[in-house]
Amino acid sequence: MNQPFGVFRPPPGFRMISLDCRAHGQTTPVGDENKIDVRCSADDLVALLDYLQIRSTIIGGISMGAAIALTFALTYPERVIGLVLSRPAWLDQPRAAGVEIFSRIAQFIRRYGAAEGAERFKESEDYVKAAQESPDAAASLLAQFAHPRAEETVAKLERIPAHTPAHSREQWATLHVPTLVLANRQDPIHPFEYGTFLADTIPGAVFGELTPKSVSVEQHTADVQKHLSDFLTERFPKR
């Protein structure tokens, strides 16, 4: 997925690689819809690292990517030397509000198709409420209809938000690698308190607050760049 490349340029000495998850990005075909989930994405990630002959690395992600990164770190701890969780959307249970809104979007797409579904969704109470709370979040929801493969990949909207992590909060305390957690306010999809809770629970984790995108996309991107660059250069100095 290209989202990480839009908000971060790694400092000298670091290389960033991004995985196109099942039903995301340019990964085709969709394949078995039962494998569109966070745990399978973590397994796909280890397969990619094996293919690239990367034994251990810093794992990170945004939103769903944060859930994949956390699952990966707990499932394959020997492959992780650092962890970055940006704008997490899960703790250890599905977030009911997220499941409901993305399920409704999937229903609009299945019933009306992506184009007409988008127009009908903009008239819905869900969209109006989201736009009042966070214009950026509302735009993110509407973008689900604009995806060039929205109808083909609609199952991801039904399966991913309903993901229940295989790990527990107690297991977070077993993580002992440098960890950075990022979150921002004014984001109903990625609650600020999810970020602070993870940072408080993972031993030694560093927390960074981001400017909400609804306030300034440019400052949000600059905040990500600074927090992540500082974390990498301070915790992983060149040798």
Description:
It is a single chain. 49% of the residues lie in helices and 10% in strands. The longest helix is centred in the last third of the chain and has 19 residues, at 217-235. The chain has helices spanning 3-7, 38-51, 64-75, 96-112, 114-122, 125-133, 135-146, 155-159, 169-172, 192-201, 217-235; strands spanning 57-62, 80-86, 179-184, 206-210. α6 crosses α7 (135-146). It has 239 residues and is α/β, with parallel strands linked by helices. A four-stranded parallel sheet has the order 1-2-3-4, sandwiched between helices. The chain has eleven helices and four strands. The chain folds into two domains: 3-94 and 164-235, 3-Layer(aba) Sandwich (Rossmann fold), CATH 3.40.50.1820; 96-157.
Summarize the structure.
By secondary structure, this protein is an alpha/beta fold. It is built from eleven helices and four strands. It has two domains: 3-94 and 164-235, Rossmann fold (3-Layer(aba) Sandwich); 96-157.
Order of helices and strands: HHEHEHHHHHHEHEH
Mean pLDDT: 94
Terminal CA distance reads 30 Å
Strand order of the largest sheet: 1-2-3-4
Write the CATH fold name of the largest domain.
Rossmann fold
Shape: globular
Whole-number count of domains: 2
**Which regions contain 5 or more consecutive residues with pLDDT less than 50?**
none
Structural class: alpha/beta
The residue fraction in helices comes out at 40-55%
What is the number of strand segments? 4
CATH class of the largest domain: Alpha Beta
Structure annotation, total helices: 11
